[in-house]
Amino acid sequence: MSMAAMAAKAKAMTISAGDATARTAKATKLKGEITLLQRNVTTMKKEFGVVVYDQMVAANRPEVERLFVETKAKIEELETQIAAKRQAVADLKLPSTPRDSGADPSGLPPPPGPPPPPGNLPPGWKRTQTAEGREYYYHEATGETSWTVPAA
C-alpha cells in the first residue's frame, strides 16, 4: 500500500471516529433535553390537578375548560419537542453528512464500483481501500475521492 493510500485510510478513519464521537455527544445532550422536557410535562400535569381541583369544587366549569385547553396545548407543544428530539437522536444513528464533496455520509470514502482495468486511471488518481477493505479511488493532489473510476 502506498504512503498516499495509507494517509487516505488514516484520514478516513480519523474523520469517521470524530464523527462518531460528535454524534454520540449530540445524542447524549438531546437525551438529557428529552428527560427535562418529560419532567416539565409531569410537573405541568401535577400543577394542573391542583389548580383545576379548586375550580371544580367551585363548580366553575368555564374556568375548568379554559385551564384544560391551555394546559393541553402546552403539554402538546412539549410532546412535539420531545418527538423532534427523539427523531434527532434516531437520525444521529445514521451516517453523518459528508465533510467534503468526495466523502460519503459515514465520513469514509465512497463505496467501490467495479475496479478499472490496470493503468486506466487518470493522472494523479490511485486505487486504494477503506479500513473495511472497500476499494475506492483517491486523487493525491486534491484529496478528492470517488467510488467510481474517475473520468480522464
Which features does this protein show?
152 residues; mainly alpha; Ubiquitin Ligase Nedd4, Chain: W; 3 strands
Question: What is the element layout, followed by pairings?
Answer:
Layout: H1 3-57, H2 61-92, E1 125-129, E2 135-139, E3 145-146
Antiparallel strand pairs: 1-2, 2-3
Sheet bearing the most strands, described?
3 strands, antiparallel
**Low-confidence segments:** 96-105
Total number of distinct structural domains:
2
Query: What is the C-alpha radius of gyration, as a whole number of Å?
Result: 27 Å
Shape: rod-shaped
What is the residue-mean pLDDT, rounded to a whole number? Answer: 80
* Strand elements, count: 3
The tally of helices reads 2
The largest beta-sheet arranges its strands as 1-2-3
**Structural class given helices, strands, pairing?**
mainly alpha
* Proportion in helices: 55-70%
Roughly what fraction of the amino acids lie in strands? 5-15%
- The topology string of helices and strands comes to HHEEE
For the record, give the distance between the C-alpha atoms at the N and C termini, rounded to a whole number: 23 Å
